[in-house]
Amino acid sequence: MHSSLFRKNFHERYFSLPSNLEQITSSCPSTPPMSATWLEPPQIDLCLMKDDHRQEVFDLVVDTFFRDEPLNKCLAFEIPDEPIEFTELIVSHALQDQCSFVAIDSQTQKTIGVILNIVKHNISLASNDHEDKLDTSDFQSEKLRYILNVLKHVHRNIDLFDELKTDRLLHTVIVAIDAHYRGLKLTEKLIRTSIMRAKHDLNLKGAFSEATSLYSSKAFVKQGYSIYDEIIYTKYDDIRLASLAGEHDRCQLLAKAL
Fold first, then answer.
1. What GO terms are given for molecular function (predicted)?
2. Which residues fall within 8 angstroms of residue 57, CB to CB, at 6 or more apart?
3. Cys-Cys crosslink for 31: which of 26, 73, 165, 257, Cβ 3.0 to 4.6 Å?
4. What's 178's domain CATH number?
5. Predicted structure pTM score
6. Mean pLDDT, to the nearest integer, of 23-41?
7. 136-139: long-range contacts at Cβ-Cβ below 8 A with a sequence spacing of 24 or more?
């Protein structure tokens, strides 16, 4: 969808949302599971993300991930405007690489979860067609450029391409789950499904993600990822990131061979 149309649709929807939005939506990677009472567990279908899912995925990511992810909260992202540029870009790349999945409530047919993955190429070996898809200099938002530099910094001591002996890696950029569907282990299922496709259909030899909170780190570790490096937020920047202490006090680089 064209950027201007995305922006128009999102503004119309966002400003008509109920006042208790913060209680009914939150980001899967940065918030603990909500306890939900189901008369019967909902049937959730996982399927490869397609262009038909684009708008619902866009809405879910902005409403959940960018609202509550620790770094975004700390830097006070302006919702809904500031995340639009990055979200449009990463959704487009994820659709192109065909390795992202959505979780659909089979009864309502609503998209209630998404994992956005892209294929990361070794830039030193790649052609111009595979330049860095997340070049920090391309984004207008200073806060977004700052966060991407934090994520880049956690790679400073290790070359995952060399470590995992490959020139292509699955990169999980975002996982977002509707708050009403917590406690169903959807994050773990989405990660596991992504790994299976990366290994068996795309012939990838490794996968990685930068976990910016305790909960996302735990989900990846449960799927066999190892922690390769980490940075403590207050040691990286004790002024702008001073409020990031406690359970969400670090960014960890996690990876696994496939």
1. aralkylamine N-acetyltransferase activity
2. 49, 91, 102, 111, 114, 116
3. 26
4. 3.40.630.30
5. 0.84
6. 49
7. 139/85, 139/86
